Predict the 3D structure of the following.
Amino acid sequence: MARCPECAGTMKFDYKTNRQVCKRCGLAVSRAELDRLWDEQRSSFRREDEERAKSQRRRDYLDWWLGKKEKDKRKK
Ligand SMILES: [Zn+2]
């Protein structure tokens, strides 16, 4: 069963229009369009993950840097 890339609702194949139609939001797309939308969805999720990982690394670095400074202060 196909899932709607917009609202994650269930999609039903409509033989009359040859499209997948979302039962929830009414989005109607062909099989190829649906695949393309999902690909876009997936790559935007990947980008978000990368952004999260990047900002986590920045935070880790900042913690390390601040910790180092703290240690330096204590030595003096
Ligand atoms: Zn939908």
User: Anything to note?
Assistant: The first strand starts at residue 11 and ends at 14.
